[in-house]
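Researcher: Let's try something more involved. This one mixes different molecule types, so please make sure each is placed in the same coordinate frame as the others.
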Amino acid sequence: MILVTVGSQLPFDRLIAPVAAWGRARGVKDIFFQHGGTTVNLTGFNHAAFIPPDEFGRLLDRATVVITHVGMGTILGCLERGKPILVLPRKASLGETRNEHQSASARSLEGRPGFVVAWNDRELPVLLDRLDSMQGGERISSDASPELLTAVRAFVHGTRLPRG
Amino acid sequence: MSKQRPRVLAIASKGGHWTELRRIRPAFNGCEVIWACTDASIRSEVQDGRFIIVPDANRWQKLRLLVCACKVAILVLRLRPDVIVSTGAAPGYFALRFGSFIGARTLWLDSIANAEELSLSGVQASRFADLTLTQWTELGVALPPRTERDSRKVYYGGAVV
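Model: All components are placed in one shared frame. Result:
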């Protein structure tokens, strides 16, 4: 199953529409769309405007590949599960989000195994045709980096960080 | 520390903010943790501590921001946490703001999503939080020992990944 997800803040039809069109053109029906309120006709596909977190986790478990905006909740969930990820960053210039942080995050994650970025609308269909060959990276731990855990732990307990 | 087990209020909005907060959970071992989130269905993820729902708001929703601020203020006054940790966004910001008034130690961990500039709430929180952390080396200074920190600076102390 291909999971397409746009988060809970705003719709993102610039992602939903081309994936639905691609699915119809290629006869790929096993796509689940979490669309956040869409004007795109999704007849023939499974879809929901929003999905509660526990159910979303189960969908992520089942997904073979995830197509998403650059939402860190979803991306961390994919990395924890070793799922291949195709992202289309939201653009503030198109009113899709408040600033260009999604492009910045995408740039910083690009190059990770199993993480592919469509930088514009023309790249997206090309990358969709390559989905079958996408492989997920290694699963990451469900905990933060030891460095961060040490820093937060030291702060919480009011102890000094080890020097060095 | 006067208490054996510090009482920690760990607060975040749903979505990525919550996912990041969940990933630092091991840092709260040995603490009494109270989790607060804007989404009731998160409750099932919390086994180790109390769970409280807080209202969400963004900066364009002035009335909701006011409601959010009031509810969070009451929560902080009622719980009197020793430590408040947030990964964003609005409810966490308010918790740190009110927490700093009652003498709680406050930590703002700016989201990993902010790779090129700190979030607006992070910039504001850095003015009063005891510690403000970014997850990008480019946006902060390496975290020095406690005694050498400046609470108005933004530090890098590792990332949630």
